[in-house]
């Protein structure tokens, strides 16, 4: 139910994160400007700077404060000055796990006027417009593993994929509901159940069983390796894809690439039960190679703001953001524009 006022936690993070988030907030301001709902934002300093200054990643007190907001807008976390894994395992994953973001929603839509590396007229004459529902709290990302004899020739490392009936069922049910609400009503399970038989058959059976509740939704199955072929050769076949945490991470980078590039790919870490704030962020990372140069494309962050608005039930505002982005993309051409110029152009349309 839409309200008059919302509080948003803002985590700019590292590298280009704060740059693109600033443009997302500019667009949020513009779309909610006159007479719309009020958005109060609170900045949280998380990421490389905080870790260098205090050694902290995600303090409990910050996590508790974050729980008090209606939603979270995140830029990116990760910096070459911090050992790989410290911030990813210390900030990003704990947020997704603690806030039970079990749906990682990643739309892949090729907007008119946007170039794809694919010959779209040939491989997807009806366009590219699908959404990946990636499981966000289980799989190989839970930190269920360990290492022995590290650095020796006898080193052992395990990284166990965790799959629970509860966790698979809730994300599969969410994916079916999304498919049922879309015109094509089609759901593809992507896994690897010919080899990963324990987890794979749990996913397969769960899709079959939950599917009984959604007779209007047609289902399909692809092994993940074959799915990468079809994402490149026949992406128009996909409508909703449901998959585990790792497969979803990988195929959504391919999805971003075919749908116009990582600068356009938005995502939501969603708790559909709404017991915690959901978190919206561009799929890309902190892009240290272009940080501080105003070269980052803020479109993914802006589209993530659109997803945030939709999650809060502000559908009209969300549609206006999408339309403004679509209009900008249609006229964008190839001339380079700064991060702020893109944000200004989209905000001006609102
Ligand atoms: P990345 O997404 O940061 O960059 C990959 C390539 O895409 C780079 O060449 C970069 O310049 C380009 N790129 C990314 N976003 C762009 C944008 N908005 N506009 C134009 N070009 C853009 O991925 P990478 O290099 O693997 O990771 C860099 C850091 O970000 C690492 O520390 C990684 O762990 C972290 N990361 C964080 C994520 C998050 O916070 N959710 C997601 C992915 C990576
Ligand atoms: Mg990724």
Automatic annotation (TrEMBL):
<keyword id="KW-0464">Manganese</keyword>
<dbReference type="InterPro" id="IPR024084">
    <property type="entry name" value="IsoPropMal-DH-like_dom"/>
</dbReference>
<keyword id="KW-0963">Cytoplasm</keyword>
<keyword id="KW-0560">Oxidoreductase</keyword>
<feature type="binding site">
    <location>
        <position position="249"/>
    </location>
    <ligand>
        <name>Mg(2+)</name>
    </ligand>
</feature>
<dbReference type="InterPro" id="IPR050501">
    <property type="entry name" value="ICDH/IPMDH"/>
</dbReference>
<feature type="site" description="Important for catalysis">
    <location>
        <position position="192"/>
    </location>
</feature>
<feature type="domain" description="Isopropylmalate dehydrogenase-like">
    <location>
        <begin position="7"/>
        <end position="346"/>
    </location>
</feature>
<keyword id="KW-0460">Magnesium</keyword>
<feature type="binding site">
    <location>
        <begin position="285"/>
        <end position="297"/>
    </location>
    <ligand>
        <name>NAD(+)</name>
    </ligand>
</feature>
<feature type="binding site">
    <location>
        <position position="96"/>
    </location>
    <ligand>
        <name>substrate</name>
    </ligand>
</feature>
<dbReference type="InterPro" id="IPR023698">
    <property type="entry name" value="LeuB_actb"/>
</dbReference>
<feature type="binding site">
    <location>
        <position position="134"/>
    </location>
    <ligand>
        <name>substrate</name>
    </ligand>
</feature>
<feature type="binding site">
    <location>
        <position position="253"/>
    </location>
    <ligand>
        <name>Mg(2+)</name>
    </ligand>
</feature>
<keyword id="KW-0028">Amino-acid biosynthesis</keyword>
<dbReference type="Pfam" id="PF00180">
    <property type="entry name" value="Iso_dh"/>
</dbReference>
<comment type="function">
    <text>Catalyzes the oxidation of 3-carboxy-2-hydroxy-4-methylpentanoate (3-isopropylmalate) to 3-carboxy-4-methyl-2-oxopentanoate. The product decarboxylates to 4-methyl-2 oxopentanoate.</text>
</comment>
<keyword id="KW-0100">Branched-chain amino acid biosynthesis</keyword>
<feature type="binding site">
    <location>
        <position position="106"/>
    </location>
    <ligand>
        <name>substrate</name>
    </ligand>
</feature>
<feature type="binding site">
    <location>
        <position position="225"/>
    </location>
    <ligand>
        <name>substrate</name>
    </ligand>
</feature>
<feature type="binding site">
    <location>
        <position position="225"/>
    </location>
    <ligand>
        <name>Mg(2+)</name>
    </ligand>
</feature>
<comment type="similarity">
    <text>Belongs to the isocitrate and isopropylmalate dehydrogenases family. LeuB type 2 subfamily.</text>
</comment>
<keyword id="KW-0432">Leucine biosynthesis</keyword>
<protein>
    <recommendedName>
        <fullName>3-isopropylmalate dehydrogenase</fullName>
        <ecNumber>1.1.1.85</ecNumber>
    </recommendedName>
</protein>
<comment type="subunit">
    <text>Homodimer.</text>
</comment>
<keyword id="KW-0479">Metal-binding</keyword>
<comment type="pathway">
    <text>Amino-acid biosynthesis; L-leucine biosynthesis; L-leucine from 3-methyl-2-oxobutanoate: step 3/4.</text>
</comment>
<feature type="site" description="Important for catalysis">
    <location>
        <position position="141"/>
    </location>
</feature>
<dbReference type="InterPro" id="IPR019818">
    <property type="entry name" value="IsoCit/isopropylmalate_DH_CS"/>
</dbReference>
<keyword id="KW-0520">NAD</keyword>
């Amino acid at each position: 139910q839409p309200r008059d006022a919302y509080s948003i936690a803002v985590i700019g993070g590292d590298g280009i994160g704060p740059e693109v988030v600033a443009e997302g907030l500019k667009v949020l301001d513009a779309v909610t400007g006159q007479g719309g709902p009020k958005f109060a934002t609170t900045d949280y300093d998380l990421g490389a700077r905080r870790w260098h200054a205090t050694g902290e990643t995600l303090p409990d007190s910050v996590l508790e404060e974050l729980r008090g907001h209606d939603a979270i807008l995140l830029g990116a976390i990760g910096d070459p000055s911090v050992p790989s894994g410290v911030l990813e395992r210390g900030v990003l994953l704990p947020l997704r796990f603690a806030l039970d973001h079990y749906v990682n929603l990643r739309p892949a839509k090729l907007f008119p006027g946007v170039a794809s590396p694919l010959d779209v007229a040939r491989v997807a004459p009806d366009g590219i417009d699908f959404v990946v529902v990636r499981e966000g709290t289980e799989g190989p990302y839970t930190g269920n593993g360990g290492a022995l004899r590290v650095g020796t020739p006898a080193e052992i490392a395990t990284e166990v994929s965790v799959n629970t009936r509860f966790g698979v069922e809730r994300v599969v049910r969410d994916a079916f509901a999304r498919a049922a609400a879309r015109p094509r009503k089609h759901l593809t399970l992507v896994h690897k159940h010919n080899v990963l038989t324990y987890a794979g058959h749990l996913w397969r059976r769960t899709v079959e069983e939950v599917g009984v509740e959604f007779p209007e939704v047609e289902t399909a199955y692809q092994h993940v390796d074959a799915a990468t072929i079809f994402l490149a050769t026949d992406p128009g076949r996909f409508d909703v894809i449901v998959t585990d945490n790792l497969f979803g991470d990988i195929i959504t980078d391919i999805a971003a690439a075919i749908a116009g590039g990582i600068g356009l790919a938005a995502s939501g870490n969603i708790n559909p039960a709404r017991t915690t704030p959901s978190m919206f962020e561009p799929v890309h990372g902190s892009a240290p190679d272009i940080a501080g140069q105003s070269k980052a494309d803020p479109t993914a962050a802006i589209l993530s703001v659109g997803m945030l608005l939709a999650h809060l039930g502000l559908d009209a505002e969300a549609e206006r953001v999408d339309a403004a982005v679509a209009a900008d993309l249609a006229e964008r051409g190839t001339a380079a524009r700064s991060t702020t110029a893109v944000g200004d152009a989209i905000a001006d349309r609102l």
